[in-house]
Amino acid sequence: MDITDLTLTQTIKALENKQFTEAELNSAYQKRIGQVNSSLNAFLEVIDTNSGIPVGIKDIISTKGIKTTAGSKILSSYIPQYNATVIDRLIAQNVSIIGKANNDEFAMGSSGENSAYGPTKNPWDLTRVPGGSSSGSAAAVAANMCVFSLGTDTGGSIRQPASFCGVVGLKPSYGRVSRYGAMSMASSLDQIGPLTKSVADARLVLDWISGPDEYDSNCIKKRLTTNDSRFTKSLKGLRVGVPKEYFGVGLDPEVERVIKAAIKQLADLGAELAEVSLPHTEYAVATYYIIMASEVSSNLARFDAIRFGSDRGDFGAEVKRRIMLGTFSLSSGYYDAYFTKAARVRTLIKQDFEKAFEKCDVIVGPVSPTVAWKLGEKVDDPLKMYLMDVYTVPPSLAGIPGLSVPCGFADGMPVGLHLLGKYMDEDTILSVGEVYEQATKWHQEKPKL
Amino acid sequence: MASGETKVMKYEPVIGLEVHIELNTKTKMFCRCNADYFGKEPNTSTCPVCLGLPGALPFINQQAIEDCIKIGLALNCSINEKSYFERKNYFYPDLAKGFQTSQLVLPIAIGGWIEVEDAQGKLTKIRINRAHQEEDTGKLTHRDGQTFIDYNRSSVPLVEVVTEPDFTDTFQIKDYAKKLQQIFRYLDVSNADMERGDMRLEANISVRPVGQTTLPNYRVELKNINSFRFMAQAVEYEIARQIEAHEKGEKLVQETRGWNEDKRVTYVQRSKEEAHDYRYFPEPDLPILKMSATLINEMTKAVDTAKEKDPVKVAEKLVSTGMSLASGASIARNPIKLAIFNEVQKEKSVLDMDWKDFGNFIANREINEENINLVPELTKKQLSDFQSRKSGLISNSKELEALAQEVIDENPGMVDIYKSGKTTVVMALVGGVMGKSGGKADPGKVKAILERLLG
Amino acid sequence: MKLTLEQVKKVAKLAKLNLSESELAKYSEQLSKILSYIDQLNKVETSKIDPTYNVTGLSNAFSPDEIRPSLTQKAALFNAPQQDKGFFVTKGVFQEE
């Protein structure tokens, strides 16, 4: 048995059964990291652990006493003096931080190439991107460098790399998990979530990290309902919405084939399919880039090289681009035409989902229009890169939860099935994911490194 | 500088005021650091939130919101049912987050008024535009070409009260500031101490020809002036400067000016061309505020109760016990003396008290204690001093005469002065006898005895 | 919409970004392209639609006025590029406070 193949739930069980010790567990992962990190560049910092359950933490999440760079040159020597809420909660569950995971600078990017510390590579094909911005978090789980990892998702940054790397990725509902300590990118959109080796693991980690927090005002008081047993082996009684807008121009035919097969599988498992419409989908990317960039421009104003960090000139090109776009959108004379306009369209996008969910319990579709692309392929055309977020951005704007579950391969690269739930209903998408996963076993496929 | 009668007749000033009040909450506006930064070592009352560290998020102080509502109600404002915070974006080293969390579109309180007196004693209603909630910045000191920053004050709650441009003279401004100060104190929401920076005034000034009803197309903002006196001087200066400019046909522009205390002139700090574009937008990290009718009722009751502590009302009540107007006002302004007086009134054993005498007695006592917990002890002492003074007066004339002779013998110089005609010097001798008697003599009687002895 | 070089310069100043001439030119072109794409939002009728700034539906998230421990002075200053006697230090600013 290779210890590093085990899921979180399996690892916990094995530790309880004394199949191996925590020290053995950590040394197995340390060894694995030693073997693969230099070719993947998934971890920026490796911590010498010998107890607890070793996990990877996106380097945008504050870890007390452990360097946290957000993938930026501006924080090249920043050592936080406090823990993010999620870190304290994980530590309470006997979790140890084994690595700080690489990411696009301040979580801005869809390929992992915007890190000041070099791109992360996709474990399935080292010439391809792992997706982003939680690039290292996804690659590390796919390559068995940790039991699970935490990422952040603002417009797809957990789900898209999870899809590209063939792991499970969950973006919880906005307000489910405290954001305190995750460096803000776009405050009204950011969520922390798990990247795991199984859907059951994602549920467990969500249970650990979610819940009210007196340090994040937007955190919902209601606790997560877990272990819903409505769906165990079959999906009978489940209504699955398929939005026609998610199968239009731009969707790679191979990816479409894999997604359609997965949807058929859901039907075979007993689910009832219904066509739904999300008519404002085509405006989501434009809406997202205005709201996100506006919030970014304000959130990154604190980087003034006085209390921490270096000069603002040390921001990378993509970060500067978004600060510029956001500053413009909020500036006098353009505020109504851009910022307020986008906030109004956001309402329509949110309403699209509310209407669609009158007809179904979950919505399914692709996470990304393509599989992982080649490194360097899109770096020179920011707009082209932005358009790759077309399916992940609308649920982010609506604040609803989204799960990426491995569902097959196109051109030899993993494809993720996107499961979207009602606001604060992670339970249903996790249950559907678990049933699907048990029936298909796609999640057991591992890259050969 | 011109300021002749005829010129003043032709133009009138239009003045609006913005007042920042630092609240006296225990903790800061958006984090639970101790808000009392006064006299603390630098950067010892800070946390990730008020230092603006990456990843930190704000959490609203409930007490501050309630205080802001109370201020609004005391100024006859209506409270917005829905209100929210916005970010005011600009860069400055004292601003940890790169934005100040403030309110623009929907402030907590809007549309109130307050009456102020002008130089002639005439009351005018000043309209209050708004009272909104925001936060303070860190403190900068400049030395040797460098700037030193202490963030202990960063994010301490501030309420900003903005008037309409309804003031026409500095007397009204002084009265307004004084009345605000009283309100903040009886509401117990701020110490409202200007020297300490608890209360800061900014004035917007322009002048227009008498008879013109529209607002001038410019205004000069007077900022960073830390006392009533200087603000009044700066406003007077500005009015004169602007009238003169008008008369010379010069064009006045929108700008921010400060006060140079040495030269006694205002000077340009920032012109319109350099004006900020603050890029206000709703603070995404904070849910909106919804003011329920229950909450507003509760706050209204609290304000009504607090109003009973208004020094003017308290003084009226004290005077009704028989004491002089001056004594009543003096006790009303001193919380310790007021507490002592109230305490004595509660005691049954002093039912036959001469309240008029006692009130004047307390008003004239020197009581430097500030600790309100010591009131029971202080009361005992004051009461016994008062009673022993009343009962212990030396009535025996022989005794007083002996003391008076002693004093005369000890001060031959003064006796000479008295005899040369400067009879007022007798009061110094009276003081001497009072001292020897331990205060237990009737000064009137002593004076008569001295006059008799000195012939 | 097209952003002129002058507009880009103004925005950079507001954002406190010191951009090189080549960066200014690049952003002028890229931002113009992105804004042109964003201008498609004008096709959406929104006159009767309220804006969404927060999706939680929460209100009055308050904390009681009770003191919690602050960071130590050492921790507060830990990452400061420049410090002196407990103060953060930066190059002089002598404008109004």
From TrEMBL, chain A:
Gene Ontology biological process terms, A to Z: translation
Stored PROSITE patterns: AMIDASES (PS00571)
EC number: 6.3.5.7
GO cellular component: glutamyl-tRNA(Gln) amidotransferase complex
Molecular function in Gene Ontology: ATP binding; glutaminyl-tRNA synthase (glutamine-hydrolyzing) activity
Active-site residues, Swiss-Prot/TrEMBL: K58, S133, S157
Keyword Ligase carried by entry: yes
Chemical reaction(s) catalysed: L-glutamyl-tRNA(Gln) + L-glutamine + ATP + H2O = L-glutaminyl-tRNA(Gln) + L-glutamate + ADP + phosphate + H(+)
InterPro entries noted in UniProt: Amidase, Amidase_CS, Amidase_dom, AS_sf, GatA
Stated family: Belongs to the amidase family. GatA subfamily.
Record function comment: Allows the formation of correctly charged Gln-tRNA(Gln) through the transamidation of misacylated Glu-tRNA(Gln) in organisms which lack glutaminyl-tRNA synthetase. The reaction takes place in the presence of glutamine and ATP through an activated gamma-phospho-Glu-tRNA(Gln).
Name under which the protein is recorded: Glutamyl-tRNA(Gln) amidotransferase subunit A
Gene: gatA
TrEMBL record, chain C:
GO biological process: glutaminyl-tRNAGln biosynthesis via transamidation; regulation of translational fidelity; translation
Transmembrane segments: none
GO molecular function: asparaginyl-tRNA synthase (glutamine-hydrolyzing) activity; ATP binding; glutaminyl-tRNA synthase (glutamine-hydrolyzing) activity
EC number annotated for this UniProt entry: 6.3.5.-
Stretch forming the signal peptide: none
InterPro entries reported for this sequence: Asp/Glu-ADT_sf_sub_c, GatC
Catalytic activities: L-glutamyl-tRNA(Gln) + L-glutamine + ATP + H2O = L-glutaminyl-tRNA(Gln) + L-glutamate + ADP + phosphate + H(+); L-aspartyl-tRNA(Asn) + L-glutamine + ATP + H2O = L-asparaginyl-tRNA(Asn) + L-glutamate + ADP + phosphate + 2 H(+)
Pfam families according to UniProt: GatC
UniProt-listed PANTHER family: GLUTAMYL-TRNA(GLN) AMIDOTRANSFERASE SUBUNIT C, MITOCHONDRIAL (PTHR15004)
Summary of the function given for this chain in its UniProt record: Allows the formation of correctly charged Asn-tRNA(Asn) or Gln-tRNA(Gln) through the transamidation of misacylated Asp-tRNA(Asn) or Glu-tRNA(Gln) in organisms which lack either or both of asparaginyl-tRNA or glutaminyl-tRNA synthetases. The reaction takes place in the presence of glutamine and ATP through an activated phospho-Asp-tRNA(Asn) or phospho-Glu-tRNA(Gln).
Subunit structure: Heterotrimer of A, B and C subunits.
Protein name: Aspartyl/glutamyl-tRNA(Asn/Gln) amidotransferase subunit C
Taxonomic placement: Bacteria, Candidatus Daviesiibacteriota
